[in-house]
Amino acid sequence: MAGELGKYKLCVSARSSDKAILRKAQDGGIVTQLFKFALEEGIIDGAIVAGPGDEPWRPRPFIATTVEELMTASGTKYNISPQVSWIKEATRSYGLDKIGIVGTPCQMQAVRKGQLYPVGLRDVPDKIKLAIGIFCMENFSYQSVKQLVEDHAAMKLDAVKKMEIGKGKFWVYGQRGQVVQLPLKVTHKYEQPGCHVCLDYVANLADVSTGSVGSPDGWSTVFVRTKNGDDIWSKAIAAGCFETKPIEQVKPGLELVTKLATEKISKNQKTVEERAKFGVNKGLRNPYLGPK
Amino acid sequence: MADKITVGHVHMSGCTGCLVSLADNYGGLLTILDKYADLVYGLTLADVRHIPKMDVALVEGSVCIQDKISVQEIKETREKAAIVVAVGGCACYGNITRFTRGGQQNQPQHESYLPVGDLIKVDVYIPGCAPCPQLIRNVCVMAYLLLKGNKDQQELAKKYLTPLMQLADRGTEACGCDLMYDVVNQGLCMGCGSCAAACPVRAITHEYGKPNVNREMCIKCGACYAQCPRAFFNFDVIPEFEGIMDAIDAALK
Ligand SMILES: Cc1cc2nc3c(=O)[nH]c(=O)nc-3n(C[C@H](O)[C@H](O)[C@H](O)COP(=O)(O)OP(=O)(O)OC[C@H]3O[C@@H](n4cnc5c(N)ncnc54)[C@H](O)[C@@H]3O)c2cc1C
Ligand code: SF4
Ligand code: SF4
Ligand code: SF4
C-alpha cells in the first residue's frame, strides 16, 4: 500500500505491556518499548533519542545505550531536536555499529536520504538498524513553545508535566493537576516555517512509525513498514512486549489518520506550488525539484 | 552480466584522499573491478601514460591553471570521457585549495586553483572531504546500470543520478553559508541535523534546532548542503530506499 499513509505491511493499535514505560510515555510507549527490546536483544547497541536539554522542555539529541537512559527521553517535546546531527558521531565517539534513531517524518526522510546519498556520512548507511518515526503535523521552535505555555497558557515551563496536541487542541498539563487547552488557531502562527512544505504525516520512510491519532487514549497507532521493521516487530510481539488490537476495531481508527494525512499533504503541496510564484516573476526554492 | 564499462581516475590537485575513499570499499571495489568496470587509467594503479577513451572519468582535485599539463589533461579528459564525475570537494568546489595563494616549495608560482567545472562541463558531483566511499560506490553501480543495464535499470540510474547532475549544474561555489542562503533564508529548514552530521570539520552546531556555521572552520567541501533533505529530496528515488539498497548490496556480492 502507498499514498498518504506510505507503504506498510501491518497497521495495529498497540501499547506497551510494561507499566513503568506506560506511566512516562506520551501515548502507548511504543518508541521506548521497541528500543528497549531492541537494546536488550542486541538488535541495536544504542538509540538516538530526544533527551532532556539545558532548559525545561528543550530536547537535545542524545545517545541512549541503557534502558535507564532510554526512559529519561520518553514523552513528546514539541520543539526541534536535530536527531540526525548525531548519526555519524554515534558510529565514532560512541562506537556504535547498530544504531537506533527516533524522529519526525522529515528526520526519517533525512535518514533515508543519508543511506542512499551518503555525501558526508561515511560508513553510516549500513549501521542504521531501527528507525522509528513519530507522526507529525508540525513542530515549533523553543521560543514558540515558551510563548504558548507562558503567555497563552499562563504556566511556567518548568511546572508543566505534559504537553499534547489532540482533539483539535493544544493541551498543557501542570504538575499540580491543572489543565489548560489552547485552540489550534492560536498555535498556527508559531509553527516552524519549514513544516509548511512537508509532505509526510505518518513517517512513511521509517521501519516502524507510530502516533496517537487513530487509537484510543493511552494507545498508539502503529505502522510496520519495512522488512527489517516487520522482523523486529514480530519478535517483540512474540516476546510479549505489546498488547495489540486490530486497527479496524478501534475508534476513530484509520479513517481519521487518512483524513489528517490527506489534509496536511494537500495543504502543504499547495504551499509548495504557491512558493513558485511568491515574488514578481520570481519564486522560492522547491527542494523536491532539485538542489538549484 | 553485460560487458564492463571503462573507468579512469584522473588526479588533479587533490590529496589522494578521494582515491583512498574509493579504495575503502575494500571487497566492494574488487567486485566492481571484477564484474562491472575496467580501470583504464589511474596514477600508480594502471600503467598508462596518456588519457585514453573511457566511459567514466572520476576526477579528483582542482586544476592549477599555472600548470600547463593539468590544464591540458582536464580538457583531454572531457574529450575522452563520456561521463565526467567530479569526486570530492576539491574537484567540485575547490574545497581547501580555495585558500591557496602560492609561494610554496617547490613550485611557488602555482597559486591559482579552480574547480574542474570552471574549465570543463562536469556531469556528476560527489561532494565531500573526503567523499564517502559508499556514495562513490553507489554512483559507480548506477553509472554501470545507466550504460549497460536493461531499460528499468537505466531508468532507475537516471533518476538516481539526476540530483547529483543538478548539483554539478548548480555551480562551483560551496560553503556552509549555503545552508543559510538556500535553506534557512528560503524558509525550508526543518531542523533535522543532517548538515551538522555531514560536516567533516565539525563547523556546524545547532542553536535551537537551526544550523549555525563557524565560517572560520568551514573548508568549503559542500557536504552539508548536498546532504540536506531540503537542498534536494527526490520522491521518485528515496522512498524506494529498501529495494535500491538491496539491489546495490546484491550487485556487490
Ligand atoms: C513535534 C511533534 C509533533 C507530533 N505530532 C503528532 C500528530 O500530529 N499526531 C500524532 O498522532 N502524533 C504526533 N506526534 C507523536 C506523539 O506525540 C508521540 O511522540 C508518539 O505517539 C510516540 O509516543 P510513545 O508513547 O510511543 O513514545 P514514548 O515512549 O513516550 O517516546 C517518545 C519518543 O519520542 C522522542 N521525541 C520526543 N520529542 C521529540 C522531538 N521533538 N523530536 C524527535 N523525537 C522526539 C523521544 O526521544 C522518545 O524516544 C508528534 C510528536 C512530535 C515530537
Ligand atoms: S511537520 Fe514535517 S517538517 Fe515539520 S517537524 Fe513535522 S515532519 Fe518535520
Ligand atoms: S540539513 Fe536539516 S537542519 Fe541542516 S539546513 Fe538542512 S533542513 Fe536544516
Ligand atoms: S560547513 Fe562543513 S560541510 Fe559545509 S561546506 Fe563547510 S566544511 Fe563542508
What attributes characterize this protein structure?
heterodimer, A: 292 residues, alpha/beta, Nuclear Transport Factor 2, Chain: A, 8-stranded mixed beta sheet, 3-stranded antiparallel beta sheet, 30% helix, B: 253 residues, Rossmann fold, two-stranded antiparallel ribbon, 10 helices, binds flavin-adenine dinucleotide
Please give the structural blueprint:
The complex is a heterodimer of chains A (292) and B (253).
Chain A: E1 10-16, H1 19-24, H2 30-40, E2 46-52, E3 59-64, H3 67-71, H4 87-91, E4 99-103, H5 105-116, E5 128-134, H6 142-152, E6 160-166, E7 169-174, E8 179-183, H7 184-188, E9 208-211, E10 220-224, H8 227-238, E11 242-246, H9 254-275
Parallel strand pairs in A: 2-4, 4-5, 5-9
Antiparallel strand pairs in A: 1-10, 1-11, 2-3, 6-7, 7-8, 9-10
Chain B: E1 5-11, H1 17-23, H2 27-36, E2 37-42, E3 54-60, E4 63-64, H3 68-80, E5 81-87, H4 89-93, E6 113-114, E7 124-126, H5 133-148, H6 151-170, H7 177-184, H8 194-198, E8 204-207, E9 210-213, H9 223-227, H10 241-251
Parallel strand pairs in B: 1-2, 1-3, 3-5, 5-7
Antiparallel strand pairs in B: 4-6, 8-9
Helix pairs in contact in B: 2-5, 5-6
Bound molecules: flavin-adenine dinucleotide and iron/sulfur cluster (3 copies).
